């Protein structure tokens, strides 16, 4: 099949312009996808840092407030009041036992603490807000050892611990072990702060307060609302005790996704390295980019995990947008190239067609067809040559006729 010059030019344009543009589009799409993934990793790390700061801020908040209560406890001799040693000092100690107990109860409620205990100078608990009738335990021998460390060092110590089962019972906090839907745990993860009450290097007592993380939505929902705002469903935050979820912003038919085990591969990697684990994963059929941050106690042992999960679709919105823009631009470029080629091909082939028609007429004996093409290029030179040839042939034929 013979192809016209116009078709040849269009085909040449397709292979010289359209194909390279399509290759470029593919390369750009690959680069955009790669950069989007890298950006998602960087952003999930940023979000994890925010989550970590929110978590540490809660610790610092408890510490600061307990330190302020410690000053009041020392200044107004709350320990003496509760131990009954202030009866002969009424003029210096204007508080009754009931009033001191009210101060501690109000403080615990106002600061969203789950327990608050007062320890005397010998290291024994003399007052529990949750259970005033249960006292006398030595804080020094109690495990985990945040309280004991703070008492012996006379320094504020705080961190995340797994509360002992008997301590949970003494504090009447057993409800935190029931995660709902028949799921239970045998301990509770807790942000605990121990503030020694010290004056002139003498320890008069200690405050021990804690915020239990089991079923606590304030940290995970607060982080999620801070980061995702309008796109609230695009991400989630979850706190694990060991490898069991105890607090989560993910909500579904079965509540807050509590009692769910962390994938063994991720948990083993966290235990082995002690470093955050980051990468893609699928949860309930949805693709996420996730980071898991180890939560360690004061002895640097991993007692839990703080997880931040973000749907990949949230990150891919920009990728899809850029890809669509690239496709539109390339599509317009291809359309422009084809239209321009068609126009130029038409402009280029029209004088050739005129020369062809003139040559056909001359071959049939029509010597009166005038050949005049003004293109300013080789076609015009060819036209002039054919015109001179026509005139020469016409003159020769006329001379022959006159003979």
Question: Describe it for me?
Answer:
By secondary structure, the protein is α+β, with helices and mostly antiparallel strands. It has a domain at 52-212: PAS domain (Beta-Lactamase), CATH 3.30.450.20. It is 50% helix and 21% strand. It contains 9 helices and 12 strands. Helix 1 packs antiparallel against helix 8 (312-363). The two termini are 48 Å apart. The mean pLDDT is 83.
Main beta-sheet annotation: 5 strands, antiparallel
* CATH C-level class of the domain at 52-212: Alpha Beta
Low-confidence stretches: none
> Would you report the number of β strands?
12
Fraction of helical residues = 40-55%
Structural class: alpha+beta
Quaternary organization:
single chain
The CATH homologous superfamily of the domain at 52-212: PAS domain
Q: End-to-end distance, in Å?
A: 48 Å
**CATH architecture call of the domain at 52-212:** 2-Layer Sandwich
CATH topology of the domain at 52-212: Beta-Lactamase
Shape: rod-shaped
Strand content: 15-25%
| Strand arrangement, major sheet | 2-1-7-6-3
Round the Cα radius of gyration to an integer and report it: 42 Å
Give the SSE string.
Answer: HHHEEHEHEEEEHEEHEEEHH
Count helical runs. 9
**Overall pLDDT level:** 83
Features:
9 helices; alpha+beta; 5-stranded antiparallel β-sheet; 21% strand; Beta-Lactamase
What is shown here, in short?
The protein is α+β, with helices and mostly antiparallel strands and 403 residues long.
